[in-house]
Amino acid sequence: MNIFITGGAGFIGTHTANYYLAKGNKVTVLDNFSRKGTRENVKWLQKEYGVKSMEVVEGDIRDFDKLRQSIVGHDVVIHLAGQVAVTTSVVNPREDFEINALGTFNVLESVRLFAPNSILLFASTNKVYGGMEEIKIIKKGKKYIYRDLPGGISEVQNLDFHSPYGCSKGTADQYVRDYHRIYGLKTVVFRQSCIYGTHQFGIEDQGWVSWFTIASVLGKPITVYGDGMQVRDVLFVEDLIRAYDTAVTNIGKSAGKIYNVGGGPEFTLSLLELLALLEKKLGRKIPYTSAGWRPGDQPVYVSNISKINKELGWEPKIDVQDGTSRMIEWIVKEKELIEKVLK
Q1: Active-site residue 165, yes or no?
Q2: Bridge partners, 270 (sequence order)
Q3: Which of 19, 20, 144, 165 is the catalytic position?
Q4: 5, 166, 188, 211: least surrounded by Cβ within 10 Å?
Q5: What is the pTM of this model?
C-alpha cells in the first residue's frame, strides 16, 4: 500500500511510519517540523530503513495546494497533524482553529477531490466530550473514578466541546464523520485517550506520561496541576498503531465509524500513581511542585473500548508496567538526544 501520514515526523506519526515501513509499504510523511524532535525522528526512520525508504514532504496542512499535490495516489491517509495542547489553544485560539479545524478540512477536501478511493483515519481526542460535569465521580485511594460507569465513556456520550482545543478538534471530528455520510469517503475517527511511548519528546503541556517519565529520569522539575488524582486510561503507542491497521484491514466494517481508543478500565493511572510507579522503578523519591487546575482538565477520563473490541477484535496488550519500562529504557539510551531536543 501507499501510506500518507500528516504529522508523520511526530511521535505517533513516527511509530505509524515505522509500522508500515517494516511491512514493506511505501510511506510518505508530511510534516512542517515545528515540534521539537521531529527532524530527529525522521533521521531515526531513515537510519532504520534507508534514506530512500520514504518520501518526506516538508509542508503544512494549512497549505491546501501543497497538501493536495502530495496526497494523490495514496491508498491510506492517516491524519495525525495538529495543534495538540489545551493550554496553547487558550493562548492562541486562532492558530489552534486554523491548524485543527481548517487543516482537517483541507485534508478532507484533498481526499475528496484527488484521492476519493483512499482510506482516511483521523486522530481525534477524548476532549470532544468536554468536562462531563453531569457524570458522578468519587475518590478511591489516590485517584478519581466514575461512580456509575465502570466500563468508562462510550461513543454515545454527548459531545460538549470545552476549550478552544476541544472546539477545533471536535469540529474536525464531526467533519470527518460527515464526509463519509455525505460524500461516501472511507473515514474512521479515533477518539484517543492518553497515548504514550518512545520517540515522544513529552513536554509539560502535552504528553504527561512521557513528560513525567523523562523529567523523573533526567532530574527535571515536575509540576502537578490540580490535586494529582486526575485519571486517564493510558495506551502505549504500539497498541494504537495496531488499532489503526485493524481499521484499515477491516475497512468494510470500520468505514464511517467513530471509536474510543485508549487503555480502557484495565490500564488507568492518576498523576500521583504514575509518580509512585516511577519512584518504584527508579528507586528514589521524585520531587514535584503543585499548581492550580488547568482549564478543561477532566478529573477522570476512561475510554469504554468495547465497541472497537466487538466490531474489530482489537484490545490493548501493553500494560503500564511494561510501557513505562520501555519508556525508561529509551530515555536512558537516548539521554543526550533528549536533552538536546528539550533545551
Answers
A1: yes
A2: 231
A3: 165
A4: 211
A5: 0.94
